Amino acid sequence: MQTPLRLHDPPSFDDCAWETSPIREGWPTLHLVHYPNTSEYKQFRGIDLTPWNHHLFINPDWANGTVPADPAPSLSYSRCAEQNPDGSTWHVQRVGPFLSTGGYDWWQLSGRDAGFMSDVLVELTDQAAYLVESFVGARDAQNAPLPYPPIHIHHVHILPPLLDLRFHGAGEISSDYRNTLIVERHGEWTRLDAGMQAEAEPEGFGRRFSWRLDFDGELNDARPAGAQPLTWWFEIALRWVRSDAHLRPVSSNNIVNLQQDEAHAQDTYEHYFWVQPYVAVLTWYSWTVPKSEAPRRVIYVKPHSHMNLLRKWFIFGAPAAQILRSEDSFLTRVPPTSDFLAVNQLPLNRTKYKSFTQLESEIMSGPSADRLLCTITPNRVRLTNGCYDRAPTVVCSLWELNPGDVFTSLAFLKYDYGADPSSQSEETRGCPIEPWLDSKLPSRGFPMHTELFLFSEAITPHSTQSCYSTEIPIASGTSLSAAIAQRIFTLLIGPPSITTRSDEGLTVVFGNICSSNTSEASTTTTTITTTTATTTSVRDRLAVREAVSLLQRQSSRVSDTHQSARISKARLLIAVFGMLSIALAGLAHVGRQRRRRGYEQPPNIGMHLVHL
């Protein structure tokens, strides 16, 4: 069995030597926008609570949709450093007070230097440290960590320094945004009976980093609209030790299946796929470990999903085609699609299986039953007004990530909250529709991820690096070649490290950013730096997004799916090369724009991008 991630109550920091100042003085790069509900959030109609940073929005949706607060609210920023007897140090930041009254509002934050680590790293001999524990969440006026509900952590991402913070850039992402996360937090990751938890690495391990940390996040007050006013503070707390602490470095692979988003619709910008209520659905993807990656041993797995939809989730060390007997397998019969981002999804009633139980029984007697690596089952807490996500139960065997290995994720999904109890499953019986929905089911369906964070250590002895990457499996039915997919990703998101095609589809790898000490820096291939000479303008990137969306809508009208795939590929080639010309013509505009904004290039403190 794997070594589990440790969840426990965070310290109170009551005895910490706090320094408090107005937010504009204490954390000037922090940007905070509030949206009263999801409908306003979708249309970017929010209040910019840090109006002195409003000029940083270079995406017109945010720039024109949000209104600078006048006057700005009286928010404070507090920070402190607390040393522990074991030689580790907590760096803690708090922002607030916020006042919310439910309705699933949105508090959208981003900022530079999370954990105020940049000054510390410069002073350390090798400019590196190990992160061994973190707390990200909300506290109430009595300093207690708030549970969910009331406060839901939609997401918080702590990651290497960015050219533009996430909510400033083109589309939903900045021009160099990589989901190469050093720390992430999502709302389900707390115990059944507790407030939001701190997360600690297994004893003897740490996540090594050698650069400043930026962050972005969104939180919601998940109570019914018009709830009693709640005063709370947002907190980031990082516990770190020096890099000479002789810890074993932990690396992270973020495996995430993405659905294409919709331009100008912020509620799709997390690249969810959508699941209709009361329909049993199967979703799966496979990914391949790049052949240039070093072998790694998985220490623990942390999944991210929405528990109101998840029924069961399996990870196999095998291609999808080998999970069921060939004559029974629906996993290999995927219709071609022209979408460059698409998720394999199939209603259970379009297979021969009558229930998830029957399908699971077939899988467990199938050809890859002995290659089942992980089983993930959802947890929920039942409260008087609803059922709420809690950390899933994750049971995994010991396994490795070796070059060329293929893995498959297969999940059973169904939303049945609010259904007649006789038709609900035992684990969801009596769960009503979430209170903030006001008994109205979303017409698009419910948003969903089946995202994996694989935390591992190098099998090679004496490794001193932690590496962080994002790997995006593309639906096996896609008609796009690896070259076209890589070109589209470069225009819309940024250049991936590698794009490979196999029988299981495409796997796109972003980042693979590794910490280094000064002695290693000269041997690493490329220092990360994003300059105006390689950055596409916002106008052109948005034009590409809309052109690709239009082509895909047009191609979907062609009745013959194979012909549609061929036509779409040709159109996409034309669009890509056409937009490349437009993008190159706009590069000078980007430089002028950044100079007008007074942009400061983030420091490259031992930060390197390894081309796979």
Helix content: 10-25%
Q: Quote the distance from N terminus to C terminus.
A: 30 Å
What is the overall pLDDT average? Answer: 81
Q: How many structural units, i.e. domains?
A: 3
Cα shape: globular
Instruction: Please give the count of helices.
Output: 10
- Computed over alpha carbons, the radius of gyration is 23 Å
**Beta fraction:** 25-35%
**Number of DSSP-assigned strands:** 33
State the major sheet: 9 strands, mixed
Structural category? alpha+beta
Low-confidence stretches: 171-175, 518-542, 548-568, 580-612
Task: Report on this structure.
The protein is α+β, with helices and mostly antiparallel strands and 612 residues long. It folds into three domains: 6-247, no CATH class; 251-475, no CATH class; 532-606. It is 16% helix and 34% strand. The strands form five sheets. Strands 1, 2, 6, 7, 9, 12, 13, 15 and 16 form a nine-stranded mixed β-sheet that branches. Strands 17, 20, 25, 28, 29, 30, 31, 32 and 33 form a nine-stranded mixed β-sheet that branches. α6 (482-492) packs across α9 (561-585) and α8 (538-555) runs antiparallel to α9 (561-585). The protein is globular. The two termini are 30 Å apart.
